[in-house]
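Action item from last week, closing it out:
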Amino acid sequence: MAYFSIIIPVYNVEEWLERCLDSILCDDCKDMELILVDDGSTDGSGRICDRYAKVYENIRVIHKENGGLASARNAGLEKASGKWISFIDSDDWVDRNSYQQVRTLLETLQGEEPDIVKFGYKKVRESAEEIFIPCVSEGRYGHEEVISILLPKAFGGGRISDSTLHTFILSSCAHIYRHDFLKSTGVKFISERKIGSEDFLFIFSLYIKACSVLVTHLTWYNYDTREGSLTQSYRKDLFTRYRLLGRLIFRELKKEDLNRILADDFRVLYIGLMYICMMNECSGPGGRPDQVSRVREILKHPALKKCLRHRTFKDKKSRILAAFMRIGAALPLCMIQWKKTGKSI
């Protein structure tokens, strides 16, 4: 059994795939398997996967029909045999000897292994990089601390926007998971074609079941935010998919009897999700009147109105945004986003 199973979904990334694979294969930690899931690529990505698999015995390739990112990750999970599970997106890469660092960290725990390890990451765009370190102290967090400390941060840290320095980002690639724990939960990815931020639901569902989460400030994962990447583009039907995400998160909270404990934090999360939907529409199709009209429709959403009635904010920017939302002021909200993206007003 390998120590790490590294699952890499692959879809039309021939330009960046070798960078990703080479960054892992140069690691001094040899006890790991790479599972490359070719999700119906139509470029040369599948051939690159097969070429690497012929050279490296620890690489396994799965070729499947296109089903999306969640489908590819689930397919990789079914074949994984390692003690620890890691996900890497095929257009990203890791720093040298990252997995050896993590293994050394885990071995110092002397058998008291956590269910999940959370670390930081870097957003890289051209020659610039931005480092995101978990906004809590390093160390082990038991179940009650996960609920009382980590999840409120993950839900927004009491802020609506620009909160990455105050939150605890739930990205699947910024965690490593103990395989036995992952299997025991039965948690799988739900398709990103159905919900927004499928990463968030997956990891949140694991957090509420975890007995312990180890937080480290190591930042060895490099997240490529080049212009034109998926997360930088307009996302159609995001409002529909984020409403479903909110419902599924609330359902999980009720199932674990946490809906009252985290009610106020959930409101922050939901308002934040709807704000993201509004900002997404500000870069959507049509002219500005069309964009404002779509934002106005989101502001009419009953669940958003209910959350706004029952939640106040301490920081100035969140109070202003919430005030605009409460009175249905779509144009000022759009103007904020247009200015932020450098579009003339």
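Closing note: The longest strand covers residues 32-39.
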